[in-house]
Amino acid sequence: MKIAICGKGGVGKSTISAVLxxxxxxxxxxxxxxxxxxxxxxxxxxxxxxxxxxVPIAKMQDLLQDRTQRNGPFYNMNPRVEDLPEKFMQKxxxxxxxMVLGAIPQGGSGCACAENxxxxxxxxxxxxxPDEDIVLDMEAGVEHLGRGTIASAEHIFIVVQPYRGSIxxxxxxxxxxxxxxxxxxxxIANNITDQEDIAFIRETTGTEPYAVFPASNSxxxxxxxxxxxxxxxxxxDQAATDLVKRxxxxx
Length: 251
Ligand SMILES: Nc1ncnc2c1ncn2[C@@H]1O[C@H](COP(=O)(O)OP(=O)(O)OP(=O)(O)O)[C@@H](O)[C@H]1O
Ligand SMILES: [Mg+2]
Known about the structure:
Blueprint: E1 2-7, H1 13-26, E2 31-35, H2 42-45, H3 61-68, H4 84-88, E3 90-91, E4 96-100, H5 113-127, E5 133-137, H6 143-146, E6 155-160, H7 164-179, E7 184-192, H8 195-205, E8 211-214, H9 217-225, H10 234-248
Parallel strand pairs: 1-5, 1-6, 2-4, 2-5, 6-7, 7-8
Antiparallel strand pairs: 3-4
Helix pairs in contact: 1-10, 3-5
Bound molecules: adenosine-5'-triphosphate and magnesium ion.
């Protein structure tokens, strides 16, 4: 299964990605974790030691220049990326591998189209990997949808929390993803304390959340200490395992 995790900044995309990756691996599945956030930290949430955390490909200026052959406004729009997965894939454990793409900051000086062509090609190549599950921790917000980077994901999970700002971003993601013909869009509720939280999400999104992740003090603390989040809170782990089973049963 190829899953992209989206949502407003700070709603818990990386946390949900990490526990989902942990739950998939626990079921014996091979998982490729891809961090596509401009300030990536999925590696830490998966428990990789600081010294093993890879440099994001988006920060490898020489490589990006080499592949895009950028010369002023001209560049190779279809840069070669086939060799990059093998070079930059980091093993986390027997079942989990990680690729840190990062993202090119938008705006400011100049167009990032050339560099984005490398990241887009690489992501599309990875999404075609047949034998592995992919969990893609996306950049916050909606901008990346316009770049078409997740067009080949099978499922998009839109993480929301029980507050209006996150629901508004979810609505934008939902409408942009529908334009891309993504077959499966699901609302994932995070940081849930009680039934009132779930009712709020149900009413404002007009749909029942596909999965519900509880608010968890231990996960918050694990993040502060730089510890892996899967295996920290049985309730959160269970929510991730239930979600994996639900997707696998195609419900
Ligand atoms: N269910 C939860 N219970 C308690 N704390 C949580 C929960 N989910 C996420 N958090 C905390 O909220 C903060 C933001 O989470 P996280 O980094 O996963 O969000 P994000 O959507 O990936 O953020 P960004 O947009 O910056 O990438 C972290 O401190 C994390 O530990
Ligand atoms: Mg994140």
